[in-house]
């Protein structure tokens, strides 16, 4: 009887889980430095943590997982590190296709992918099309992404609509801008997790996380696992979300 109650309780908790979780995956380079390794070793280990996060999201019936992989500001890093990251990105795309199919995952890359080389752009487009009809977890990889960039490109699209007479300026509302963001047609972000000990957003999903819960952990991203993820979920479940309103 106790076992059945426990199962029922776990299912009730799952129903309270966030639908859309976004993670700022921070700490790869510090992890490598602590281990006496080159920075790319941290990124490689971070890829393993990414796979664990995706697995946890699937098990816990999450609908959307958005991962901050490479920001527009990361382009200021060394050419060696950037090239190594792009090679790792291409490797991950090529080697995870089978798992995207197996687990019914829809992959979407959000950000300005024109920064990447032709081979990487082509592979991104191929896999996005290949997984477009998958109905399981939506996995967003934010690559060459910035929240300010996202808002600006949305505003530009709206201006074009106004100039063409398709949209009247008086019709522009909050949902108008949201419609043209890279996350259009997706559920709002419920929970943002940042690893690595820093307590800032770092230009990530600035518009989309207006009422998200924020969870910060000192755990470096390569050490992120299901237990750390569960702690973040427990924190989210404990929160009373009022969205600016009064307590009911």
UniProtKB/TrEMBL annotation:
PROSITE patterns: UPP_SYNTHASE
Active-site residues per Swiss-Prot or TrEMBL entry: 26, 74 (proton acceptor)
InterPro entries: UPP_synth-like, UPP_synth-like_CS, UPP_synth-like_sf
Enzyme class: transferase
GO terms for biological process, alphabetical: cell wall organization; peptidoglycan biosynthetic process; polyprenol biosynthetic process; regulation of cell shape
Catalyzed reactions per annotation: 8 isopentenyl diphosphate + (2E,6E)-farnesyl diphosphate = di-trans,octa-cis-undecaprenyl diphosphate + 8 diphosphate
Record keywords: Cell shape, Cell wall biogenesis/degradation, Magnesium, Metal-binding, Peptidoglycan synthesis, Transferase
Cofactor: Mg(2+)
Protein family according to the UniProt entry: Belongs to the UPP synthase family.
Entries under NCBIfam families matching the protein: uppS
UniProt-recorded name of the protein: Ditrans,polycis-undecaprenyl-diphosphate synthase ((2E,6E)-farnesyl-diphosphate specific)
Organism: Buchnera aphidicola (Lipaphis pseudobrassicae)
């Amino acid at each position: 009887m106790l076992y059945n109650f426990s199962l029922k309780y776990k299912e009730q908790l799952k129903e309270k889980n966030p639908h859309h979780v976004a993670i700022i995956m921070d700490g790869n380079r510090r992890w490598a430095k602590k281990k006496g390794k080159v920075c790319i070793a941290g990124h490689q280990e971070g890829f393993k943590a990414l796979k664990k996060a995706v697995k946890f999201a699937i098990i816990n019936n999450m609908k959307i997982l958005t991962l901050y992989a490479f920001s527009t500001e990361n382009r200021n890093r060394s050419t060696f590190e950037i090239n190594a990251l792009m090679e790792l990105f291409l490797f991950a795309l090529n080697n995870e296709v089978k798992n995207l199919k197996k687990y019914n995952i829809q992959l979407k890359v959000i950000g300005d992918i024109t920064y990447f080389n032709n081979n990487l752009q082509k592979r991104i487009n191929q896999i996005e099309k290949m997984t477009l009809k998958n109905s399981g977890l939506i996995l967003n990889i934010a690559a060459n992404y910035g929240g300010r960039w996202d808002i600006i490109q949305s505003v530009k699209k709206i201006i074009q609509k106004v100039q063409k007479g398709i949209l009247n300026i008086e019709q522009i509302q909050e949902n108008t801008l949201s419609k043209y963001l890279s996350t259009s047609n997706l559920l709002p972000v419920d929970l943002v997790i940042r690893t690595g000990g820093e307590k800032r957003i770092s230009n990530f999903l600035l518009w989309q996380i207006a009422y998200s819960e924020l969870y910060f952990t000192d755990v470096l991203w390569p050490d992120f696992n299901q237990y750390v993820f569960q702690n973040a979920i427990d924190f989210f479940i404990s929160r009373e979300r009022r969205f600016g309103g009064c307590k009911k």
